[in-house]
Specification:
The chain is α+β, with helices and mostly antiparallel strands. The chain has four helices and seven strands; from the N terminus they run E-H-E-E-E-E-E-E-H-H-H. The chain has two domains: 4-138, no CATH class; 141-174, no CATH class. The strands form two sheets. It has a five-stranded mixed beta sheet with strand order 2-3-4-5-6. A two-stranded antiparallel ribbon has the order 1-7. The protein is elongated and about 90 Å long. Bound molecules: zinc ion (2 copies).
């Protein structure tokens, strides 16, 4: 099953199917660990409009923002799209009020074909966390020598601030 839906097919029956990766997942940019998996449902709601709802989950591996160690993250997306065949210009305004529903994404299609893969990819990017941390208390990398301060404390700090030893030395020199 290619992940494209034709309006024609939907006029015969509603669609319900599993999400799988037939090439839409951007593996070059995001490391995939598990999935993607999920479900897509689509119904024809009038001759030129299809409503698509879905849930998708997958496991990805992203680098920690502070120390760059890989972190496994489960992503879950729930989404709905209103897909309209025809340009925005010929939309007669009957959708104006519904526009306030921010949850609903609206897509205008040049052809009566819905690209499920493109939808899933968009949802994947929307589901990515804005901040990735291996641990809330991650100490990150030393800005001077690049050592991972979680496992490998370096000497850089002690040269910039007075260490207890230098204080002792000053005392003993009196
Ligand atoms: Zn980290
Ligand atoms: Zn250092």
């Amino acid at each position: 099953m290619a992940m494209k839906l034709l309006f024609n097919e939907l006029s015969q029956s509603d669609y319900s199917g599993r999400i799988h990766n037939d090439g839409w997942f951007p593996v070059a940019e995001i490391e995939l660990v598990e999935g993607p998996d999920g479900r897509i449902n689509a119904i024809l709601a009038g001759g030129d409009t299809v409503l698509v709802t879905g849930t998708m989950n997958c496991g990805v591996r992203l680098p920690c923002d502070r120390c760059c160690e890989p972190v496994n993250i489960d992503l879950i997306a729930e989404f709905s799209y209103e897909c309209i065949f025809g340009s925005e210009d010929i939309d007669d305004g009957r959708h104006e009020k519904e526009c306030r529903e921010e949850e609903l994404n609206r897509i205008y299609l040049e052809e009566p074909v819905i690209d499920i893969g493109a939808m899933c990819r968009e949802q994947l990017y929307l589901a990515l966390p804005s901040r990735v941390l291996c641990d809330e208390s991650c100490k990150g990398l030393c800005p001077r020598c690049g050592a991972d301060l979680n496992s490998d404390p370096c000497e850089c700090e002690s040269t910039t601030s007075a260490s207890p030893f230098s204080v002792l030395r000053q005392l003993s020199e009196r």
